[in-house]
């Protein structure tokens, strides 16, 4: 083989090597593009699912609000139901529970939106009363003002109940002063306070303290039931009170509902 042939062969070999590397690079680029397209498609699918879920949630909340306006009767706009306030789904559940009972003696641990709405329901059906315990004087006054502005003083009231030490079986808790609790039977107990910063499992004392005051067909409702503290409280309550059947509602922040088992004393 002459020198010119060897040079040509070397040149062809180099070009084949370059071509092979180029093909490999194109393959890697194609695979990268395909992976990127797959990721974009997955993101788009997730966005569509998120948008559908958001739309369903918004539609459900509108339905809940419309139901609440029917249940509360004419009385102006409902109070706000966002941020720390109870959402429309929990508020509707409570309003329907009170309506189904033909009125109820409601005790709330914590005051706010539900106090006003349930007082509106009581006035609408002409029966029942709501009492809310509130440890914060500022919030107590705000809720009182809401009730007064709607002429609901006879249907709902707020008791300023500062937190004090409460002994339960040797455990000391910061809870509402028991001396300020109403003495009537309780048909519906809503536990939405004290707030978490008060201490671990801050809402636990509600059922141990109030169990003897609950009516035989009482219902106990725990808000924010998806939080770790509230899950622990739910477990303790159900263990200590087997006469109650527990149900978890898939509300925005979770709701635990306890009802006495049929035939329980």
TrEMBL record:
Coiled-coil ranges (or none): 9-43
Gene3D superfamilies, per database record: Vaccinia Virus protein VP39
SUPFAM superfamilies assigned: S-adenosyl-L-methionine-dependent methyltransferases
Pfam families from the UniProt entry: Methyltransf_24 (PF13578)
GO molecular function, one term: methyltransferase activity
Keyword Transferase: yes
Signal sequence annotation: none
Alphabetic keyword roster: Coiled coil, Methyltransferase, Transferase
UniProt-listed GO biological process terms: methylation
Keyword presence, Transferase: yes
Chain segments annotated as transmembrane: none
Protein name (record): Class I SAM-dependent methyltransferase
């Amino acid at each position: 083989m002459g020198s010119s042939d060897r040079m040509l062969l070397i040149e062809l070999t180099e070009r084949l090597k370059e071509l092979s590397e180029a093909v490999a690079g194109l393959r890697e680029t194609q695979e990268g593009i395909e992976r990127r397209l797959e990721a974009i498609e997955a993101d788009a699918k997730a966005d569509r699912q998120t948008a559908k879920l958001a739309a369903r949630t918004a539609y459900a909340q509108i339905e809940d609000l419309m139901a609440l306006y029917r249940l509360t009767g004419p009385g102006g706009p409902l109070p706000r139901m966002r941020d720390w306030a109870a959402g429309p789904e929990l508020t509707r559940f409570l309003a329907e529970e009170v309506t189904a009972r033909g009125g109820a003696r409601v005790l709330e641990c914590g005051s706010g939106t539900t106090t006003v709405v349930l007082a509106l329901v009581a006035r609408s059906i002409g029966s029942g009363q709501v009492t809310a315990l509130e440890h914060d004087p500022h919030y107590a006054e705000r809720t009182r003002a809401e009730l007064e502005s709607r002429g609901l003083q006879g249907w709902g009231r707020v008791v300023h109940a500062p937190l004090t030490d409460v002994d339960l079986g040797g455990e000391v808790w910061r809870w509402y002063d028991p001396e300020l609790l109403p003495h009537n039977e309780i048909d519906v107990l809503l536990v939405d306070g004290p707030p978490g910063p008060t201490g671990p499992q801050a809402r636990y004392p509600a059922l141990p303290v109030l169990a003897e005051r609950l009516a035989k067909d009482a219902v106990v409702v725990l808000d924010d039931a998806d939080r770790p503290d509230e899950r622990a409280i739910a477990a303790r309550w159900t263990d200590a009170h087997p006469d109650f059947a527990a149900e978890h509602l898939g509300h925005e922040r979770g709701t635990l509902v306890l009802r006495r088992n049929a035939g329980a004393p």
